[in-house]
């Protein structure tokens, strides 16, 4: 039997010309798709053994090899999530058959639900895997050109406390807790979603992000305000390891349909999840937090990244400008 079912999934079973048996899951409940994969695999084994052709490697094989070879990367978990999303478009696709137009369509799909920068991160991952498959693994020939979207060099998008309240009220409870914690701490999306109880000390009102999980490559100490502590208290007992969960399972994604619908209901446009971090930083600067303190609190590696928020603190800087004003007045009076 070349196809058979286990539960809702079709499995493939056939014998190659050399007598070897191939048995594997098609990873689909669609019989037509399973049959297409079966026929392609069987034909490839025939060409490989009868004609001496090289095996036609698939995207799935390349993605798996990529994850194994880059498991040490700080962004490994992010690659896992990206590849999980990309799988719906590239599953079982032969590397040599992936076209420039196909990649562009994937980028457009991601751009429609997020931003140019986010779409570019996915396109960059596709490009990196295809290049490695071509230049290092020698699994395929020429790599299609991947065109990236333009990104603004500086983008500081923040919302007012009133807008933040409208957004939080529009979110479902589990996402509201995550968004509120992000606003209260300024932590990046990945650090909030993957936060574990071993990283939190509620009694000492502190949390920490290890260097290998921080974008800047250095440990981040997080001082927890009252609201952040309240959010954490509300998560106690829901999961043994992870702080934020949904229906008993760790949360993987936050940029969901529920998030986008909440933005619409709150009347907030052009706002990404990462802009919660911009909002946190902007509020602090507007209320007198020095730039060097903000850099330490937010875990930015360079002062240049923090200077993006300097223009939001004219009142804070006014007292320094007043020093020159006083000196000039003394000078002019003396004359």
TrEMBL record:
InterPro entries: CB, DNA_brk_join_enz, Integrase-like_cat_sf, Integrase_catalytic, Integrase_recombinase_N, Tyrosine_recombinase_XerCD. Keywords: DNA integration, DNA recombination, DNA-binding. The keyword DNA-binding applies. Residues 57-134 form the Core-binding (CB) domain. The keyword Membrane does not apply. It holds the Pfam family Phage_integrase. Residues 154-322 form the Tyr recombinase domain. SUPFAM superfamilies: DNA breaking-rejoining enzymes. Belongs to the 'phage' integrase family. This is Site-specific integrase.
């Amino acid at each position: 039997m070349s196809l058979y079912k286990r539960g809702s999934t079709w499995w493939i079973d056939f014998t190659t010309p050399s007598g070897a048996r191939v048995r594997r899951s098609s990873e689909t409940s669609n019989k037509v798709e399973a049959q297409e994969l079966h026929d392609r695999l069987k034909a490839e084994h025939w060409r490989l053994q009868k004609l001496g052709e090289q095996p036609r490697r698939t995207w799935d094989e390349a993605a798996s090899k990529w994850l194994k070879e880059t498991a040490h990367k700080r962004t490994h978990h992010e690659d896992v999530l990206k590849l999980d999303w990309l799988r719906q478009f590239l599953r079982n696709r032969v590397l040599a058959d992936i076209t420039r137009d196909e990649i562009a369509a994937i980028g457009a799909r991601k751009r429609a639900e997020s931003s140019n920068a986010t779409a570019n991160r996915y396109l960059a991952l596709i490009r990196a895997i295809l290049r490695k498959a071509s230049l290092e693994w020698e699994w395929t020939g020429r790599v299609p050109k991947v065109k990236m979207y333009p990104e603004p060099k500086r983008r500081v998008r923040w919302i007012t406390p009133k807008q933040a309240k409208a957004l939080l009220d529009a979110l479902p409870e589990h996402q509201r807790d995550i968004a509120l914690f992000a606003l209260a701490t300024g932590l990046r999306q990945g650090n909030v979603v993957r936060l574990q109880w071993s990283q939190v000390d509620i009694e000492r009102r502190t949390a920490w992000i290890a260097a290998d999980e921080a974008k800047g490559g250095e440990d981040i100490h997080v001082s927890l305000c009252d609201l952040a502590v309240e959010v954490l208290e509300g998560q106690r007992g829901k999961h043994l390891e992870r702080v934020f969960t949904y229906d008993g399972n760790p949360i993987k994604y936050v940029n969901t349909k529920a998030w986008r619908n909440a933005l619409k209901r709150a009347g907030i446009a052009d706002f990404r999840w990462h802009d919660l971090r911009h909002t946190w930083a902007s509020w602090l600067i507007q209320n007198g937090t020095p730039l060097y303190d903000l850099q330490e609190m937010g875990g930015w590696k360079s002062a240049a990244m923090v200077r993006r928020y300097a223009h939001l603190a004219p009142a804070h800087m006014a007292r320094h400008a007043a020093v020159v004003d006083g000196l000039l007045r003394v000078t002019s009076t003396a004359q």
